Amino acid sequence: MTAAPATPVTAPSAVPTRAWAVWVVGLVAYVVAVFSRASLGVAGVEAQERFDAGASAISLFVVLQLAVYASLQVPVGVALDRLGSRRMVLLGALTIAAGQLVLGLADDVATAVFARVLVGAGDAMTFISVLRIVSMWFPGRRVPVLTQLTGILGQLGQVVAAYPLVRALDVWEWQATFVGAAAVSVLVAVLVAVALQDAPTATDAPPVGLSQVRHDLAATWREPGTRIGLWTHTVTQFSGTVFMLLWGYPFLVVGQGLAPGTAAALLTVMVVVGMAFGPLLGHVVAVWPLRRSSVVFAVVAATVLSWSAVLAWPGRAPLALLVLLAVVLGTNGPTSMIGFDYARTENPAARLGSASGVVNVGGFVASLVLMLAVGVVLDVLTPGRSTDYSLGAFKAAFAVQYVVWVLGAWQVLRYRRRIRARLATEGVVLAPLHQAVAARLRGTSAYR
């Protein structure tokens, strides 16, 4: 809104072919990172057999990997501003390759945990680096849609993990499969080294001292646009992420009594809705950049209402209501990407990496906290060490979400007020939303 946009390119109406080629290279790197992130999840049974470990130990792999990912976002963002996207994506691919190689050769839990830490670290370097490429190569109005497409198409890595990887484990077994996965990451690193470029015009960031790094990071944190991006990511991402990654399937099968195939279909609905909703949302954000928070509040309200209906329903909820919940949760991931758009438009290009890193922390920290909180409540309300959780226990556990929703929505509202007050001092006073919408439908403007 007020800071210089992060796009240093005076872009013509037609985007150069080179820009699309660079984006595809970055996207391929992100797809492989997502594939590596999800690879252990689909090999859970084989991992238990290979390492002679229980389900809790395998769950630790996932939680620890996400914790590493979240904890590295700010340091990676700072490094991204200094080193550029090409170097960070290259380093991420090589780190992931090392992690997959160690996992393929590991025969004990400790070594496997170290391997997943490496994968989480490499994964942490990839996504925000690719987003920076989008901001540097494309005009501002295209960035929201391409940001959504990057997030959506990146999830093809989960598809590759769910099908070809499982098949590879059946044919080649553990070691050959993960060594092969490491080789794929090495090939990506070679592709990045050859074809990826930070920006249309090569610009080497001047070396800066530690004091300047601290100054820039403090400036990033003080910017209200960074804060609203952080809380936007927090309040919109966590519910869908926790449902998809860990507790949704048990809730549907054990708590709601659905058949496993039906539960899997509902999770698939979430993915399909996200893929359809993302580009549409990106277009809305591009056309209505000053109304992004209204979209955030609408999605949060829909999420809260759908969860409230499911949790308040006496006994098991009807299938139609669970389908509605899945549809609404499918919009959460794309909406969380609005947080990165705030980081892009409210910070200068030199701080884009650190701002994106700060934003990306929010949703993953909230997701980790909720994953642990749901598990604790289920254990407290379930006698002994049984995993036969009751529907009442699940409902009490998922009620923890309301704390995050209230806190996150309040913070988004708080920083929106600060940004709009700053706009008002510059002569930009937003008309009420209904007036702006009515004017747009008439083909006019609500502003002079």
From TrEMBL:
Gene Ontology terms: cellular component: plasma membrane
Zinc-finger keyword on record: no
Start and end residues of each Major facilitator superfamily (MFS) profile domain: 22-420
Membrane topology: Multi-pass membrane protein
CDD domains: MFS (cd06174)
Record's keyword annotation contains Methyltransferase: no
Stated name of the protein: Uncharacterized MFS-type transporter
Residues that span the membrane, as ranges: 20-43, 55-76, 88-106, 112-134, 178-196, 230-252, 264-288, 295-313, 319-340, 352-377, 389-413
Source organism of the structure: uncultured Frankineae bacterium
Keyword terms, alphabetized: Membrane, Transmembrane, Transmembrane helix
Subcellular location: Cell membrane
InterPro entries: MFS (IPR011701), MFS_dom (IPR020846), MFS_trans_sf (IPR036259), Proton-linked_MCT (IPR050327)
Alphabetized SUPFAM superfamilies for the sequence: MFS general substrate transporter (SSF103473)
GO molecular function: transmembrane transporter activity
